[in-house]
Amino acid sequence: HMYRRAWHTGLKTTYYLRTLQASNIEKSTIDIKKEVRGVAGGKKEYTQAEQQACSIDAMINGGECEACQ
Fold this sequence. Notes:
About 35% of the residues lie in helices and about 0% in strands. It is built from 4 helices and no strands. With about 70 residues, it is mainly alpha-helical. It is rod-shaped. The chain has a domain at about 45-69.
């Protein structure tokens, strides 16, 4: 009934007429503390398979290979 009345009166949108709240809204910001949690100093710890996949030259020079960035 409410939507029909809005249509007859020429209301352009019924967005604010909804009865249920939007409870599962996606957050647009990220908490950095949660992203770094569990990793000492914010540096990524690689698994054995990831370490073997890195190029040897990059590991010798103390850098990261392009795949690990």
